[in-house]
Write a structure and sequence with these properties.
The protein contains 7 helices and 13 strands. With 273 residues, it is of the alpha/beta class. It is globular and about 75 Å long. Bound molecules: zinc ion (ZN).
Amino acid sequence: MKTVFVAMLLLAMMATLPTMAGAQGGIERLYVLDCGVNQGKDQSRWSPGVNEGKPIEFSDACYLIRHAKGVLLWDTGIPDAVAAMPDGMVVANGAITQRRAKTLAAQLAEIGVKPADITYVAVSHTHGDHVGNVALFPSSTVLIQAAEYDWAMAQPTKPAFAAAQKFEKLAGDRDVFGDGSVTILSTPGHTPGHQSLLVRLPKTGLILLSGDAVHFRDNWEHRRVPSMNTSREQTLASMERIATVLEKKKAQLWINHDKPQSAQLRYAPAYYE
Ligand SMILES: [Zn+2]
């Protein structure tokens, strides 16, 4: 009888462990940072058959997550140097003009975060408006899919990483802090090693940060695949994967480049808990 009681007590204690761990650690805050704007000459580059020849402006966000076990920066946006360019920076053979109202460095300083405080810089993929400032964090470990790293390093224009940059090359999903609160999801297709981020906030709940798995809400609803994506099949499969995660986890989808949605978010120094 006594043994049964002790066993039951142990089971009860074990059942409460995850809750205790959640109360003592986990994510503390998520900040949304303004990482620039892209002005596209022709929306149909991202939305085939839609608004051909018409310009579109879209948001570019970075996200800083404070966790009891470290700090993670998700994407780094358009290079900070662009903030000093009055006419912005023209890229993609003239198809896009990038602008930055405020540097990433200044926004981090405003919330009291030094580059050396950042444990991980995780990048959704290696396009210039996502990896523009990785070199600002030479002591952080970059979390990137091996497939993305290999692909990017074979391009004529390589991402500007710091000379001493540390990389952790992933092959699929990764539970970053080991408690299920920050999970990298492999979502290839836009690029070969594209990834998205699932974040579980104590008060706000679950948020899935898209990266460029999809660019705009309308493209999400119509499952449109931009012409520059490296694989149409993988893109569609990744969108289905995201849809399944959203439904199962009751998560919100934050689409990085969707300007109307981004305009609704609270930016740093405000934050989400
Ligand atoms: Zn991209």
